[in-house]
Prior knowledge:
By secondary structure, this protein is α+β, with helices and mostly antiparallel strands. It is built from ten helices and 42 strands.
Amino acid sequence: MPPIGRRTALKLVAGSMAGGMAWATLPWAQAAAKRGNVTVQDARLTISFDRRLHSALASGGTVLTPYQPSESLLLANGAMEDFALTGQHELAVDDARHGPGHQLIVTGRSERGIEKQVAVTFFDALPGMAVLQTRYLNQGQAPLDVAGWRNAAHELGDAPGGFWSFSGATHTDRRDWVQPLTANFDQRNTLSMDSSDYGGGTPVANLWRRDIGLAVGHVEPVPRLIDLPVSKTPKGASLAVESLQPSVLAPGQSLVTERTLLAVHTGDHFAPLQQYRQFMQDEGIAGPQAPASAFAPIWCAWGYGRDFNVEQILATLPKARDLGFEWAVLDDGWQTNEGDWKIDTRKFPRGDADMRAFTAEVRKHGMRPRLWLAPLAADPGSDVLHDHVDMLLLDKDGAFQTVTWWNALTQCPAYQPTIDFYVALVKKAIGDWGFEGIKLDGQHLNAVAPCYNPAHKHAHPTDSVEGLATFWKAIHAAAREANPEAVVELCPCGTAFAFHNLPATDQFPASDPLSSWQVRSKGKSVKALMGHTSSYAGDHVELSDGGDDFASSVGIGAVISSKFTWPRDTEHPSEPLPPGGFVLNPEREALWRKWVGLYKQHMLPQGEYLGTLYDIGFDRPEAHAIRKDAAMYYAFYATQWSGAVQLRGLGAGRYQVRDLFNEVDLGQVDAQANTLKVDFKRFVLLQATPLGADA
């Protein structure tokens, strides 16, 4: 096994520290000292260490967890969990990025001569969230084979109603990000590759009860190959941050873990994801301000499949525009193959000239053209694979990595010729052909494996892992250079979005949702992670429950999208058509027109999504709230509901409530009397408008 890698010193905080203070002078610390324990806390979270450096959690005076070996060194035959407490020190900190706070450093020593230091930092701006980092120093005489490390491992006890969980990790089966914990729930939640083309994600895992929740993750500015296991246990539920990278800790050497977060919260996963976003934003990772056009309704030609003909698309544009759609997406099938990205002259005989003519025709109909691309994939038989085999990402055995959907091979995003190739392609698509947006598509775009291709001369195989976000920044910069108002959409099909890719993205779709629940739960998650800077789209409504559930997009403030065909379906679909196909029959046309009208009238994606008002796991019916201008909007979802709903977050005064879809006034409410009786199937979308002073 290799020796310890890049880090040899404990990074206590990102910025400077000042104003050291004696730990024992704090009143709560004096009480803990009498018990032989060491405690650090803020207004919401208390962390106590015992004499073995096991820790326990409390919040608001309530004990949440017993003392547990929360930070451990993993070995081949178990874990090193016990370290006799030898010292503690607390400092006031003033971090250049995160502001003032305080930090506790505890030190202990194992029977095998390994010194352990845990640094716990609270920042005043992030109450309830601690940043932890652990250092292990081999003070013994013999090298130690290390299998990995574990931080922030805690078990939260059972409570009535059980647990819900959010996982930011990608799974090949495209499972829900937000799930209840069943009796045998056990997810490894690896941020490494789950399969050849599925991996990565947002490095946060969360579990919560009706009354309290815990979140863990890492807060490094680049992706890390760690796991975030969440399991149902006989007495409750557990979670942790783990690294399973083997190494040898030689005498005198140190192993330093990633900076990890531990947060306590009430409600669902929205609040801790917001805190994570705030921390990472202060680290310099934040999404761009999306152009106004990123909130316009989208029509996509994918309903015609790969074997479309241009006449089908052009004939549909008048209908799409008449319904109120403003984007027209030219999807998969315009190109000869994935990899070369040459125009298929069977569809565009004059090549570049026909592509320019196509975008001009889209604009002639009052719409904006967007082009589909799947970068970092090279088909067998493509010229780029033959002429630039050096671009390929190779594993440690020299094997290719495959993109299963297209049976293609993955290219390395951290190799400059690969970057240059796709930057030039994007500039051509926007600057020459005239597209105003790019749809980047494919599950392989979320993460890549470590690259061992010797031609790339990587300093470390994980350069490819960390370099993917840099690749997307280059693509985004190229698009904006060609057109400052260009929209870059990233659709990593079915994956859990990799947070470190978000700064180079103007729009995330629901990314091939398997249900309307995924549209809504992904939307809530992305809005926590991105705030108001980016656009979340519900993806093609045809992928939702019943193929017509616009309510699950409109009600949560997602951009609406459709891949309808007109006046008939294609005879050569790329995927099996659902019953009734995608054709816009008169019944669908009336429904589509109504929803596009409601969407454009209220433009809820440009409002403030209030994700902490309702718990998506425990509140029934499921509820979402948006504040826009002076009004409040509420969306409730259930198979069927007859009963009271609570309109939370109202301001002063009385409000008139209207059922927007059914165009019915339901009465008046205020903050003190904020319940209404409603009857609905599937959904109800309410608008609460403040009344005048004389109402």
